[in-house]
Amino acid sequence: MQTRLALLLLVCITQYAFSANILVAVNGGAGHVRPIAEVAKHLVQNGHSVTFATQKLAEYHFDFNSVPFKRIIWANESQDAAKHEYQIGYDLFIALAEKPAAEAVFDAFDEVRKNEEQLLIKLLDAIEQEHFDLVLVDVMYLHVQMTVYQKKIPMVLNIPTFFPTLMDINKPAQLSALSLQDLTSFPKRLYGLVEHVKFLFGVLGMFQNQINEFKKCKEIPQEIRDGYTLGSLFETQENSLQLYTTTLQFNYLTTAPPNAVFLGPYISEGFEKPTAELQTWVNAHSSIVLAVFGTTSRIKFPRMKSLILGLIQVVHENPTTSLLLALAVDNYETMMQVLKEEKQESFLKHERVNIVQGLVPQKWLLQQKNVKVFISHGGMNSVQEALYYGTPVLVMPFQFDQVTVGTHVQDTHVGLTLYNDNGFNPLLHIFVEHSPQKYHFTEKEVATKLNLLIRDKSFANEAVKMSKTMRHAGGTKRAVDEIEFVIDMKGDMSHTVSILSRLPFYQRYAIDIALVVLGLGALVSYLMVYIVRLVLCRATKKKQD
């Protein structure tokens, strides 16, 4: 209550300096709503009027009562909407862990499309009823972007994770799970290129299918639906400022869009306070390994067995190291089955082990100097939070994007990943579907990698450097500055990007020249083959005569 009154007072003091009417539209998933909600809160603190549009699911991840938003628009306002949306998301995440990466991406976008359609209908009403100076949109909401662009409202896109770009073909693509070291191998580079091209064509097909579905929605005006095209989508994104909630150093992009700004994670100042019991336990231990796996990651028995036995080994081998392990209900029960089968129930009572069933105040814990290593599922928010506070990470990924995060953690030497390619054959998997998230690891790998992170201080040193880089990028404060700049420029981004970006796409990347050269090369090759065959035929005929 005191926080809300303080924000209201701040708004009253500052609103006459520079006040804009801003609409925020974001998916309700934790990795999407938390960063944007943090920016929206600071926009309110700067005196702006903010309307926040999202799913009810977002209430699980952000306290909307703590910020005096002008209005909150829910995609679904029914009483059990949050619970229903959470269950859909949970089931989707479980399914994604079993599917090939490309198929998982397409299924995720299809689920987003369903809630985006509900939200877009309400956003159209809001846009018709009042003037907005700017719309801040989640990059996943493709049709909200195109609609706002048609309405000629200045727009900023928020991108919370690695997002593939068309020309980034020689990099560890999000779906190939390749590391930088892998790119020294020609077969793996070839595999990565093929996966990238396949994914791009798949994405174009998926976008077109989504556009076709939205065109069927009669509640969206016909003139708006007519503007939903692939060309319109690309034009929209090229003419909107793109805010990446990563640093360029913690991203695989090599050809960043000209309208992109890399801000690092949006870390809020506040955090959930620990219980007195937890705080006492943390203060009593000098070196802690913290393990948290999110709310939707389900650890199956074989992985749980390797994880727990590896952790037991580490605790026994390091007499000054303690373990704080937080597990959701399903995962806690699986762990108990492992301990019972391995006759290791005494591990629960070990003086340096604290196993929590449920959630822990993760951000508060990561700020403690005695938390030396963080074991994570590889969610972008969690990993960047740990690195923001200079804590090395051991990633145990469950889904395709988490595999990429883990690989990048290892490539930048700020941690390690339990992912391994399990004898992956790149040439074979050009033709046979590969699901990197179905990897396997042993208890020995857990113990070896965790011991390395505990004992080798070079990981902690690199994590501290990454922390400084992330803080220097600007985070929430700079995001607010960039948004206010776009409002001040009335959405005109032409003076903020390279003049080359004004060229058509095919000219910018010399695609027309490449096609002409390839065509001429093919023509010359054909003529040479034709002439050689003609000469050989005449020589043969002459010899026969």
Task: Give an overview in words.
The protein is an alpha/beta fold and 545 residues long. It folds into 3 domains: 2-97 and 109-164 and 230-266 and 475-501, Glycogen Phosphorylase B (Rossmann fold); 276-472, Rossmann fold; 510-545. Helix content is 50%, strand content 11%. It is built from 19 helices and 13 strands. Strands 3-2-1-4-5-6-7 form a 7-stranded parallel beta sheet, sandwiched between helices. Strands 10-9-8-11-12-13 form a 6-stranded parallel beta sheet, with helices on both faces. The chain starts with a helix and ends with a helix.
* CATH classification, class level of the largest domain: Alpha Beta
Give me the count of strands: 13
Helices and strands: which structural class?
Answer: alpha/beta
The termini sit apart by: 105 Å
Percent helix, as a range, is 40-55%
> How many separate helices?
19
- Low-confidence sequence ranges: 11-16
The CATH H-level homologous superfamily of the largest domain:
Glycogen Phosphorylase B
Overall pLDDT confidence: 86
Query: In this structure, how is the largest beta sheet organized?
Result: 7 strands, parallel
Strand content: 5-15%
- By CATH, the topology of the largest domain is Rossmann fold
Radius of gyration: 26 Å
Overall tally of structural domains:
3
Q: Outline, from the CA principal axes?
A: globular
Which strand order do you get reading across the main beta sheet? 3-2-1-4-5-6-7
Q: Please state the second-level CATH architecture of the largest domain.
A: 3-Layer(aba) Sandwich
